Every structure is written in structure tokens, then in C-alpha cells.
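Ticket opened by: R.M.
Priority: normal
Category: complex prediction / small molecule

The reporter submitted a protein together with zinc ion and asked that the result be attached to this ticket for the collaborator who will pick it up next week. Submitted input follows.
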Amino acid sequence: MASHLYRDTAVVLRTYKLGEADRIVVLLTEHHGKVRAVAKGVRKTRSKFGARLEPMSHVQLLLSQGRELDIVSQADSVESLAPLVGDLDHLTAGIAVLEAADQMALEREPNPRLYRMVVGALRTIAEQGGSLVVPAFYWKLLAAEGVRPELDVCVRCGEPGPLVAFDMDQGGVLCRTCRTGAAISEPALELMRMILGGRLNDALAAPPSKVTHEVMAHATRALEHHIERRLRSVALFESAGFEPAPPR
Ligand SMILES: [Zn+2]
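Result attached by the on-call engineer:
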């Protein structure tokens, strides 16, 4: 029986060994969601084929559909994200983007927006770097999932300020009276408003500082909070044996 062939563009999220010579590549494809595929024979020879299937590679693929794992028949490089290699900051940032994407992507569930965001973030890292690319990616990822923190008024009482704390359990910033979660500084809050308010490029120009570190800390905490809650809810639904209800 002829297997079903399809073409797609993808970013390689991660790889692992299979048997003596093969490698499994976990792909974030543009049109087929997260796909696991086997690249045969790539570890036997120093093949160009194998070199194109390293994490962070942006590739055009010909795949044949399998029952569990698809098979990579052909891989061509779309573009080089080469500045990533050899620069530790770029590499670390790239890995952070891939990890977050891997957590968010669902197997064989198309999410072209996520794919475009990942490609955009990796390109930005390769071309200009910047300490806010990763936190900005996290915030945009959460916003795309419908998680958008309140940044302008206290989430509990509506006071416009001063806003001194940030708590994702509450849904955003808090005033002095209502404060829970972690402290947030005014400059960090302003950068978060820029990231989520359509002034991303201005935010990305910010040089690394205590403030950009603070934005990263809040973004990481928010993403972890979201992923953990999602995983927990999935486990709950599976054990109870019913489908998740649509959000009210
Ligand atoms: Zn308040």
C-alpha cells in the first residue's frame, strides 16, 4: 500500500536517537501541528540530510505518514538561523523558544499562528538578539491562548495606581492594598505594556538591565503557571473520562 505523502514547512523542536542509525525529530509544522517523524540513516553518515534536521533548523519537508511516526523523505533548508550557533546567549534564547513551543503545540493539531510566532522569534534572535525576545515571545504566546494580563488598573479593586504587584492567579497587576503575588516595578510594567500593546519593536530595543530581567522573571512565572494548569486539567479530564467543557 502506498503511504500518504505530504509537504510542509517546519521548525525542528528537538531530536532523539532511535536504534543504531536513525533519529526521531519532533517538528512544529506550519499546517500539521506537532509531528514526530523518523529520519532514517542520518546517524550513520555525516549526511547533509541529517545536518538539516538539528534543533532550530527551519526546513521544507516531504513526509510520509505512518501509523505512529511519520518518515522524513526529504529535507531542504528554508533559511539559516546560523547566528544562533556559537553565541551562547542566542543559543539559550533559541532553546527557550523551542521549549515553550513544544509545551504549547498539540500533536497533529494545526496551529499556523504558533508556527509563525516561533519562526519570527528565532529570526529576531538570529538577526538582532535582545534580552526581551524570549519574554516577549512568552507573553505573545499566552495572549494567543487567551491569557492576557490586566496591566492598567488593579485587577481586584480597579484603582489606576500605584500598581505594585503582579499575580497571574488574580489575572494581572494589583495596588498596594490588594497586593498578592510578586512585586513589580513601574519600568517593568511599562515594558510589559509595550510588548502586549503593539509596541513590540520599541520594547525589543531595550538594553539588558535589571528591568528586562524582571520582565523575564514575570513572563517565565506566567508561562509556567499556564502550562501547569493546563497539564493538570488534562490529567483530570482523562481520569474522569469526560470531555472538557467549552469555557464559559
Ligand atoms: Zn486594588
